[in-house]
Structure formats: structure tokens, C-alpha cells
Amino acid sequence: MNTDRQVVIIGSGPAGLTAGLYAARANLSPLIIEGFEAGGQLMLTTMVENWPGFRDGIMGPELMGELRAQALRFGAEIVQGDVTNVDLSSRPFRLSVSGTAYTAQTLIIATGASAKWLDLGVDKQLSGRGVSTCATCDGFFFKGRRVAVVGGGDTAIEEAIYLSKLASEVVVIHRRDRLRASKVMQDKAFSTPNISFLWHTEVRDIKDVTRGEVTALVLHNNLTGETSELPIDGVFIAIGHTPNTRLFKGQVELADNGYITTHKGSRTSVPGVFAAGDVQDHVYRQAVTAAGSGCMAAIDAERFLSGTGH
Ligand code: NDP
């Protein structure tokens, strides 16, 4: 395999694969580096009903399989491996992938963001079986049912409001007695009749792994020390995301919240380095917006290489 590339894309979620598809069709023979969370967050969901073009929805892993095959069909190459080191100090950029050195004239960072879990173990085990980190992805499955949302930030409250239109009842579980979410979101949630709040409450366990579904939460009140059980059909964990930017710290400009700063489309602070998808977007975070920004990054890279961009 040629290790000296025009375009290297790190990440194989909707952003990375779409960037690969567009770069391949522009004859740039892109190399996509697929990490250990290959396929991104869609691999963790079941039915995706908001990807345009599939009126009956498509399973997340199947959609990613199709996207991957489409990128390969046009000549993108995919290697699996862990990017251990990136040097963006001069062009060509240098990368080390599972011990192999690559150089890249342009780099598209599409490493995504990972939802934070509760670190119970059981929450990951029941992921897609009643535990979710994305209300817009999975809320529909809880139509008319009772769900909980864990967290007190904008994401949690936005998810609770979204879910209140589908679920019969939404219980927000927060570890303190004050929300971090913006006032306007708080007001909206407080005035929604089927949203209730459990304050000073932490989730200690999720039942029932043996049945492979969510039936109840074991809760701990950190003020009174009391433990209780809340019967529930589903739980949405909304305690924040972590952008996967560890490799790029100190090399490209990051915003205060750790996300990569982009300007004029997908451009980062380093000429020739572009970013797409959730690694640079903490607001929309949808598969389709990630794919759209992957397309933008490939076009920006192509223009950069032909001397008509940047
Ligand atoms: P935040 O970091 O703002 O909030 C995370 C919430 O989860 C906090 O309430 C925190 O509690 C709680 N939490 C964190 N870890 C744990 C844990 N281990 N157990 C229990 N609870 C935990 O993340 P968000 O994803 O909500 O928001 C990220 C950024 O995106 C923010 O800047 C937000 O404003 C923005 N955003 C904006 C939106 C909008 O404007 N429409 C929509 C969504 C996000 P505690 O408060 O005690 O720290």
C-alpha cells in the first residue's frame, strides 16, 4: 500500500466515509483510517429513521456498511488501526498508524465524539436495548412509554423535551438540585406537564441484564443516602460527549470545550488540515450533518490541493 497520500482521513463514521467517497470520486485515492470505534456512533444504534432516503428506516450498522462499500467502490482505501501519533508541524503531515508511517498532503479529521457513559458497565451492556445516548435516534421506540433522562445540561433537557412529545412520562434524574442547562430550556422543561425531576439522585444500577431489557433503575439519593427503585422502560444518558481530539491537542486550535474550531467550511487553524463531523460540531450532532460536513471537507481538501482554496 502506498503510504504517501494526497488525502488521509482519520475516522470512519458518516463524516469520514462521506469525505472518502467524495475524495475518491475526485481521483485523490484517499486513505481512510478506521479506528477501534469503526463506523462511529451509528454502530451503537438500531434503527435509523432520520437518514433521508429510507422511508422505512435502516439499521445503523447496515447504513455504515453501505457507506463503507460505496467509498470503497470509488477507490477509497481503508486501513484498520490505531493512530498513535500525528505531526502537523509541516507538510506533508506525518502519521503513525499501528506502527506504520504515512505521509499526507492533506488531512481530514473525522474522529467524532464519544458519548459519556455512567461507568456502570451495565449501561453499555443494555445499549440499544433500552439504554440510549441519543433521543433523536431512539426516542421513537418509546412512544407512549415511561423513560428517564440522566443529566442536567442542555443536552439532557433538550432530550427530555424531545422525548416528552413521544413518551407518556419523562423523569429527569440529576445528581444536584440545580440544572446546568440554559434558563430558557429549563423554563420549557419545568412547564412541560409530563416531565418530572428527581434531584440529588444518582443511578447506581440498571435492571434487567438477564432479560436483555430495561425494567427499572436503582437510584441513590446523595442527600439522604436513601436507595430506591424506579420502574422504567428506557433510559437516555445525556451527561455530555467527549470529542476525540487527544491526538491533535496543541497542534490545531481547539475551542474551550475541546472541539476542533473550524472556519470557512471545514478549515482548521492548520492549512491543509480539515475537520468534519462531531469532532467539530457539538450542536447538531446528526449523522446527516456529519456526512454533509464530510463532503465539505473533501471538497475543501481538493481545492486546497489544486491551489484554488485556503
Ligand atoms: P454538559 O457538560 O453541559 O452537562 C452534562 C450534565 O451531565 C451536567 O448536568 C452534569 O452534572 C451531568 N453529569 C456529568 N457527568 C455525570 C455523571 N457521571 N453522572 C451523572 N451526571 C453527570 O453537557 P451537554 O452535553 O449537556 O452540553 C455540552 C455543550 O453543548 C454545552 O455547552 C451546552 O450548552 C451545549 N448544547 C447546547 C444546546 C443548545 O443550545 N440547544 C443543546 C445541547 C448542548 P453537573 O451539572 O452536576 O456537572
> How would a textbook summarize the main sheet?
7 strands, mixed
Tell me the distance between the termini: 29 Å
Number of strands: 19
CATH class membership of the largest domain: Alpha Beta
What is the N-to-C succession of helices and strands? EHEEEHEEEEEHEHEHEHEEEEEEEH
CATH architecture annotation of the largest domain: 3-Layer(bba) Sandwich
Helix content: 10-25%
- The overall average pLDDT, rounded, is 94
Shape: elongated
Please give a structural write-up.
The strands form 5 sheets. Strands 1, 2, 5, 6, 7, 8 and 19 form a 7-stranded mixed β-sheet that branches. The chain has a 5-stranded parallel β-sheet with strand order 10-17-11-12-13, covered by helices on one side. It has a 3-stranded antiparallel β-sheet with strand order 14-15-16, with no helix packed on it. The radius of gyration is 21 Å and the shape is elongated. The chain has helices at residues 14-25, 60-73, 122-125, 135-138, 154-164, 183-190, 287-305; strands at residues 4-10, 31-34, 47-48, 58-59, 77-80, 83-87, 93-97, 100-109, 113-115, 131-132, 146-150, 169-173, 195-198, 201-207, 216-221, 227-231, 234-237, 241-243, 273-275. The longest helix has 19 residues, at 287-305. The protein is an alpha/beta fold. The mean pLDDT is 94. 23% of the residues lie in helices and 28% in strands. The structure holds NADPH dihydro-nicotinamide-adenine-dinucleotide phosphate.
Question: How are the elements arranged and paired?
Answer:
Blueprint: E1 4-10, H1 14-25, E2 31-34, E3 47-48, E4 58-59, H2 60-73, E5 77-80, E6 83-87, E7 93-97, E8 100-109, E9 113-115, H3 122-125, E10 131-132, H4 135-138, E11 146-150, H5 154-164, E12 169-173, H6 183-190, E13 195-198, E14 201-207, E15 216-221, E16 227-231, E17 234-237, E18 241-243, E19 273-275, H7 287-305
Parallel strand pairs: 1-2, 1-8, 2-5, 8-19, 10-17, 11-12, 11-17, 12-13
Antiparallel strand pairs: 3-4, 6-7, 7-8, 9-18, 14-15, 15-16
The structure holds NADPH dihydro-nicotinamide-adenine-dinucleotide phosphate.
NADPH dihydro-nicotinamide-adenine-dinucleotide phosphate binds next to α5.
